[in-house]
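Suppose a colleague, Dr. K., hands you the sequence of a protein chain of 124 amino acids and asks what its three-dimensional shape might be. Before reaching for any lab equipment, you can write down a predicted structure in token form. Begin with the sequence itself:
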Amino acid sequence: MSTRWNDVEPIYWQLKERTIAMILDGTLAEGDALPSVRTVASNFQLNPITVSKSYQALVDEGLVEKRRGLGMFVREGAFDQLVASERQRFLQTEWPATLNRIERLGLDVEDLLKQKDKNEDKPA
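The predicted structure, expressed as tokens, is then:
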């Protein structure tokens, strides 16, 4: 996890978004324990209240559950829930702007697919 924070969003929100990204990319799987509040606070030089607020936001969204005396764990179904919400957010907010730009540039589906194929042929 990166230690850089932007000045645009609250740090607790950025930490929540980074945790969500870790679930989506498989770094944190369903059933995995999240690092303790103290560990995260120490590693990133954050106030433990900031970390707790971030974790509570994940609980409120139903992605993480508290297990008394054990810590916080990624809930079963969290990955699918996140994929569905991220797809919905993309289609509602990002896709219209992307589509508008594609149309302004005069691109069509064939152009885009050709470019995709070219990018896939490049060595990583």
